[in-house]
Automatic annotation (TrEMBL):
InterPro entries, A to Z: MFS_dom, MFS_sugar_transport-like, MFS_trans_sf, Sugar_transporter_CS
Provenance organism: Pseudonocardia ailaonensis
Main location: membrane
Lineage top rank: taxon: Bacteria
Protein name (record): MFS transporter
PROSITE patterns listed in its UniProt record: MFS, SUGAR_TRANSPORT_1, SUGAR_TRANSPORT_2
Membrane topology: Multi-pass membrane protein
Keywords, alphabetical: Membrane, Transmembrane, Transmembrane helix
Subcellular location: Cell membrane
Transmembrane segments: 25-45, 57-81, 88-106, 112-136, 148-170, 176-194, 251-269, 289-309, 316-337, 343-364, 376-400, 406-428
One Pfam family, short name: Sugar_tr
Span of domain Major facilitator superfamily (MFS) profile: 20-432
Amino acid sequence: MTATVPAAVAAAPAKVRRANFASAWLGWMLDGFETYSIVLVGSLVVADLIGQGASPLYFGTILAVQLVAWAIGGLTSGVLIDYFGRRRVLMVSILTYAIATGLAALSPNFTIFLILRIIAGLGMGAEWGPGSALVAETWSDRTRGRGIALLQCAFGVGFLVATGVFWLLGPTDPGTWRWLLAIGALPALVVLFVRRRVGESPLWQESDKRRREANARAQRGEAREGDRALTTFTLRAIFADRVSRGRMLKLLALSTASLVGWWAVSTWVPQYAGAAVKAAGAAPTTTTLIVVAYNAGGVVGWLVWGLLADTIGRRWALFGYFAGALVLTWVLFGFHWGSLGLLTLVVAVNGFFTLGQMGWMATYPGELFPTHLRGSAITVVFNASRIFAAAGALLSGAIVGGLGGIATAALVIGSIYVLGIVFSLIAGPETKGLPLPK
């Protein structure tokens, strides 16, 4: 697992590398737009399709079903990109979530809305893996952390775009959610760009060639040493090997901390800020500005993650971000903020750590597994823990409804960042500046 691919194999024309990055960036940015659109308009959806005063569990259900669908779509795409390539799966995934999101804007009732959000979630989950693999496999070893961070910050940019569009459409207009989701059909146009400009990963092409050759030898009864690793089903291969299994379990602990912490805590930031704005008697648009501050902090956090990962290393950068996320979650939700200015600042710093840390999942796992398993490995890390995050979203909704406070739910669920602190330094070897394993 430590051998590396020759430079000639890993090389790709600069024009292709730029197109690959642009397509992955656009796809992930629009994923962020879709994701945060639901966070912003979830309460409007519930009020419109269920009725005013509906239980917070309805909002938690929207988040939970999308998370589960995202996990299923992501896990499926990881296997598909290892066997059929990064480019093809990228196109299908973008088209799926774009069409389903556009149709969701026309939902006549809550049940149909949930069904369409499940389909959209499948496509959204499937988009991340091929885009991340394409960029990781065509970026230089020395600056891969920064390249992946630049890609991952697109998710936060999508948050900012969604927030801006939400503000322009009118945060209090009951029909805003339909218009915001209708705009979500635009990513379908990205498929045209992907189809014309994006090239396949040379690393995957070489890996696919070796896999096909190994399968052919196995059918002739001429299997060589190492062929079994190439011909074993990817998910089984990851957990069959003792070293890769140990790494995967530790990475899953880290991703559970990241995703549960974000989905079950920070998704309540808009409503928490809205309550503070209302109590202060400020204009409702102030809530939007506070949410923008959170997302802007996340974008900066992603970019700084890449710089730190390429300088002090992946593991120490992880440790710092998890520690910061724990502290800032308690600072944000553990105190009463009389000043909206101070609240905005704390929200921004919270976003730096809780949202900005997500970059590690596209960087570190892919550097611990060989090319023929990379797609499956990174999507398992990124998506399997979403099941726990879905439970966290429902639990936080129940805590809010039962105890009557968003802050209480955030403080309880946010403590999971302790898990990230513990596992950040033992998840695997340092990979800063090293070539991707063959």
